[in-house]
Design brief:
Layout lengths: L8 E6 L4 E6 L4 E7 L1 E2 L4 E2 L5 E5 L5 H23 L11
Antiparallel strand pairs: 1-2, 2-3, 3-6, 4-5
Length: 93
């Protein structure tokens, strides 16, 4: 990342469903986020259980940083889905 500070990344898919790919500026897939499946029952696990597959040589810390940012962007959607307040700074009155 440091050698080329103008590098762009594009995310295609639906992070809310934990199904998306991260592409570099050359449109080459460098990471993929997928929901995990229980191998014994073939049941898709919850949205908070997913795998992050990286292309060899891609910075894992950077990829996890992108996942954390995407998670924060999407936390309101998930919170509404399970019926909780997405903003922990708002106190009940």
């Amino acid at each position: 990342m440091y050698e080329n500070s103008s590098e762009e990344y594009h995310i295609d898919g639906n992070f809310g469903e934990r199904c998306c790919s991260i592409f570099n500026g050359s449109k080459e897939s460098v990471a993929e986020i997928k929901r995990k499946v229980d191998a014994s029952t073939q049941v898709i696990l919850g949205k908070d259980v997913f795998s992050l597959c990286l292309k060899p040589g891609f910075d894992a810390a950077f990829a996890m940083g992108l996942v954390l940012v995407l998670d924060q962007i999407n936390c309101h959607d998930y919170a509404e889905e399970i019926g909780i307040d997405a903003d922990p700074t708002i106190a009940d009155e």
